[in-house]
Write a structure and sequence with these properties.
The chain is of the alpha/beta class. It has a seven-stranded mixed sheet with strand order 8-9-6-5-4-7-10, with no helix packed on it. Strands 14-15-13-16-17-12-18 form a seven-stranded parallel sheet, sandwiched between helices. It has a six-stranded parallel sheet with strand order 19-24-23-20-22-21, with helices on both faces. Strand 14, helix 17 and strand 15 form a beta-alpha-beta unit. Helix 1 runs antiparallel to helix 4, helix 9 packs antiparallel against helix 11 and helix 23 (752-759) runs antiparallel to helix 25.
Length: 884
């Protein structure tokens, strides 16, 4: 550890020479403490050394808060005693280990500073600015005088020093014990109390979901611009993003032909000149003036042979660089809140508040995985000191998100497994009779699913199983068999689906399948529908039948979890398209059982790689339907460029003339100034007037009222609409056997999983079906956007949803697979695209190890982690529906 301590001593000596101004290191000692502690921890060989590192790091952080040179001098003296004393001890141990019972030598006096250049991260002593003329002779006299060492001052009695971070977390002697979780003082205070925010900006931040300091800390940048490369103007290359320092020469303010204010300036740095242009920022004419030294960062371009930058970020040379010359964060914004103001707010917050975050990951785990501390990671992900620091911070926070998600799911699983439940026995003869009564033979995957469900029902532990199968894999018949098993034991069953149309389809299928196997009284079970379209009288009739047990099976939407719905003996709850329902809604349906938890079967058609599914659905047992029934038609898929759109329209028209129907899907509801993509509303109007004026078109998107959406889907299902123009709201919840064409605009902007889901809306009947993917890549190349070539080509080659999910994960990360619409997870996942197979496997291993040693997180050192998991589990999402 000597090298890190030696570096520290040099910096402390430099701070003494500079007069305790906190400028010996760039950014101050508080920022330096993070990096020094990380390096010193890596060199520490014993627990005692690690405790010393934490003690010194705490003192370094306190240095920023001291106001007088005297206070800072006292702290520097203390730090030098600790650091040099440790170096002397280590040197003595290397020279000759001391015999037993010999007292340690006294700490050495602070050595004279070395003339060698400062270490990295240390700001070199700058040449002092010339003093005013009247004082220059005196200054020169002082320079000639030999420098006298500063006399050692009589130290005042110091109050009891604040305990170090490790001591506050329970380090005592050589033992590591946590007596209580670290506090996060004041993180819940309103942002309006922060300097530079106030009431007006607090209202703007609220639009971004930010009301407290904690919210602000976790409002992460959605990307970073690397302006850390500083170059002279003569070395600039067109197209690169760089930072330049120069002196402003000519400045010209004028208006464009459209009347917009424009400011032009020329800066030079002695090597060449660079032309700068800003639009719609008239106030800059008062800030950028001839002779001022400024720093600019942006993309280098060329105009009429001159090097230019258009609307670059800029700052005065004399300030600490925030918008230029570094890795610059780019935050979500809202109207009247500019990027510069947002960065200024976030810089003040990220400099002060991350240190108050309690690190809930156990120390041994952080050291084993070589992870950045939580406070450092949050600070660095906002304003990183380097690109490497940013990547390390993102890696730590990505691990946290998946680790806490997985751990909370595992602990929820432990909770429901602790409850006993009445077993439901299923006889072999009964199961064989049911299967023989079906109009088709079950696949091997469906047989395995029935065996899994049967074992769950007979286990005495509430079933909590996820049935994951591709579109057309036969999930409905498996659900019907599970319901029939529950009915055979005299129990009731409920099936909840996200839309009225889907409920009607399930209702028809269950009536058909369950009528083939008589109930316990020899009669087919009573199956009823419960949706928002029922009259009050019909709804009350269903309520009464469920309460007295005369209705054995109910199929419904969210209406199933409304007040008034009570079951006599609910034994099984089935949820279709589970990612459309929040954890809270699933819990509410389970809570409808009078005698405790019913068995739960949730189904999804969204393929997720098995490894990832076992992490994000760790509270569920997983069954895969990875085999398609015989005779299922593959949907023919073609990727086309924008130049082939008219041909696509002609093909679509030919299908409708043969009596078929079609979807046209767009990524947006309305036109966006920031995204060049076709919107559903604008295209619906254009297509209706210019392309398909003689056909019946319908419109469907997530911003419509639920009744309007139901009506549009019902009209399409009944054949009253030829072409349904829609957003991705039709990804689930509508099954129209007569639809044979799915046309997706801007397909390169979607993930493979989502495109596969959309494709699954056709090919559900006897007719040959097609999926046309229109890519808006530049130059008309349909396979040239952001790696779109391999992704979209994969859709042409395979209809296997699980294989496509693996490809999507490998190429794009888990973003599309882990979004709210895919997983049903509570809360936003910020770093999903970093969740690769290696990270997922690491998380699974760490959670498994932790739960085996401390299944309920009752050990003192796991108290912060238990608190964090409890906070996540308490944040239930009341509604996930109607996502467009």
């Amino acid at each position: 550890m000597a090298s890190s301590l030696e570096t520290l001593v040099k910096i402390l000596n430099l701070e003494q020479r500079k007069g305790y101004k906190n400028d010996a290191v760039i950014g101050g000692f508080g920022r330096f403490a993070r990096h020094w502690a990380r390096e010193a921890h890596g060199q520490a060989k014993t627990d005692a050394h690690k405790r010393l590192v934490d003690d010194i790091a705490d003192d370094l952080r306190r240095y920023d808060d001291l106001n007088t040179p005297e206070e800072r001098a006292d702290l520097i003296d203390t730090l030098l005693e600790k650091a040099t004393g440790q170096i002397d001890r280590q040197d003595a141990e290397v020279a000759a280990p001391p015999p037993p019972k010999v007292e340690e030598p006294a700490p050495a006096e602070t050595p004279e500073p070395s003339p060698a250049p400062p270490e990295p991260e240390v700001e070199a002593e700058a040449e002092p600015e010339p003093p005013p003329p009247s004082r220059q002779p005196q200054a020169r006299e002082r320079e000639k005088a030999p420098r006298q060492p500063r006399p050692k001052r009589q130290r005042k009695p110091r109050p009891e020093p604040a305990r170090s971070l490790r001591e506050r977390r329970g380090y005592a002697g050589g033992e590591f014990e946590i007596s209580a979780p670290a506090t996060e003082e004041n993180l819940s205070v309103p942002v309006s109390t922060l300097s530079g925010v106030g009431a007006k900006r607090a209202q703007l931040l609220e639009r971004l979901g930010v009301t407290t300091v904690r919210d602000l800390l976790y409002l992460f940048p959605h990307r970073h611009e690397d302006f850390s490369r500083l170059k002279t103007i003569d070395r600039l290359e067109i197209g690169e993003e760089v930072t330049v320092v120069g002196t402003v020469g000519r400045v010209s303010a004028r208006k464009t032909k459209r009347g917009q204010p424009m400011l032009e300036a020329i800066i030079s740095d002695g090597t060449d000149a660079l032309s700068l242009t800003w639009f719609n920022q008239p106030w800059l004419s008062k800030q950028i003036y001839e002779g001022r030294q400024i720093v600019v960062s942006g993309k280098v371009d060329q105009y009429l042979g001159r090097l230019t930058m258009t609307s670059p970020e800029w700052e005065p040379m004399e300030r600490d660089w925030l918008h230029t010359g570094r890795v610059v964060p780019v935050y979500p914004l809202t109207k009247d809140l500019s990027a510069r103001v947002m960065r200024q707010i976030m810089k003040r917050v990220s400099d002060e508040w991350p240190r108050r975050l309690a690190d809930y990951l156990p120390l041994d785990m952080r050291e084993r995985l070589d992870m950045m501390d939580l406070g450092d990671a949050v600070a660095q992900v906002h304003f990183p000191d380097s690109w490497d620091d940013l990547q390390a911070a993102r890696a730590r926070l990505a691990f946290d998100e998946l680790f806490i998600l997985h751990l909370s799911m595992v602990m929820r699983r432990q909770d429901w497994q602790a409850d006993a439940i009445e077993t439901i026995g299923v006889e072999d003869a009964w199961l064989e009779t049911f299967q023989q009564a079906l109009p088709y033979q079950l696949t091997g995957a469906q047989q395995r699913a029935l065996n899994d469900i049967r074992q769950d029902l007979e286990s005495g532990v509430p079933m909590n199983r996820l049935l994951q199968g591709d579109v057309g894999s036969g999930k409905t018949v498996v659900a019907a068999a599970a319901i029939a098993m529950a009915l055979s034991a005299g129990k009731q069953a409920a099936l909840m689906a996200p839309t009225g149309i889907l409920c009607e389809q399930h209702y028809a299928a269950l009536n058909d399948l369950l009528s083939r196997v008589p109930g316990t009284d020899g009669q087919p079970p009573a199956v009823r529908l419960l949706t928002g379209s029922l009259s009050d009288a019909e709804r009350q009739e269903v309520y009464a039948g469920l309460a007295d047990g005369s209705i054995q099976v109910v199929v419904g939407t969210h209406a199933l979890i409304q007040a008034g719905v009570e079951f006599a003996d609910l034994g099984l709850a089935v949820i279709d398209e589970q990612h459309r329902f929040g954890v809270h809604q699933r819990g509410t349906l389970r809570g409808k059982a009078a005698g405790g938890n019913p068995h739960l079967l949730v189904m999804t058609a969204t393929p997720i790689p098995r490894t990832l599914a076992l992490t994000i659905h760790a509270d569920l047992d997983l069954t895969l339907l990875d085999e398609m029934p015989p005779g299922r038609q593959a949907v023919e898929t073609r990727v086309l460029g924008t130049r082939e759109r008219e041909r696509s329209y002609a093909f679509l028209r030919s299908q409708i003339e043969q009596g078929r129907q079609a979807f046209i899907v767009h990524p947006l509801v309305e036109e966006s100034e920031n995204i060049e993509a076709r919107s559903a509303v604008a295209e619906f109007e254009r297509l209706q007037k210019e392309v398909f004026a003689d056909l019946r078109l319908g419109l469907l998107h997530g911003q419509m009222k639920p009744a309007e959406k139901e009506q549009a889907m019902a009209q399409f299902y009944d054949g009253e609409i030829d072409i349904l123009v829609s957003t991705t709201v039709i990804e689930v919840g509508i099954d129209v056997p007569n639809a044979s064409v799915m046309m997706v605009e801007n397909a390169n902007r979607f993930g493979l999983a989502q495109l596969h889901q959309l494709r699954g809306r056709v090919g559900r009947g006897e007719h040959r079906s097609y999926c046309l993917l229109i890519s808006d890549a530049d130059g008309g190349d349909p396979l040239g956007v952001n790696g779109g070539s391999q992704r979209l080509a994969a859709l042409e080659e395979t209809n296997d949803g699980f294989r496509l999910a693996e490809i999507d994960w490998e190429m794009r990360g888990a973003g599309d697979l882990l979004g709210t619409r895919q997983s049903g997870f509570v809360g936003r996942i910020h770093f999903a695209n970093l969740m690769d197979p290696h990270l997922v496997e690491t998380v699974q291993r760490e959670v498994d190890t932790l739960v085996k040693t401390d299944p309920h997180l009752q050990a003192p050192q796991h108290a912060p982690l238990a608190e964090r998991v409890a906070r996540v589990q308490a944040r239930q999402d009341p509604a996930h529906g109607d996502i467009s």
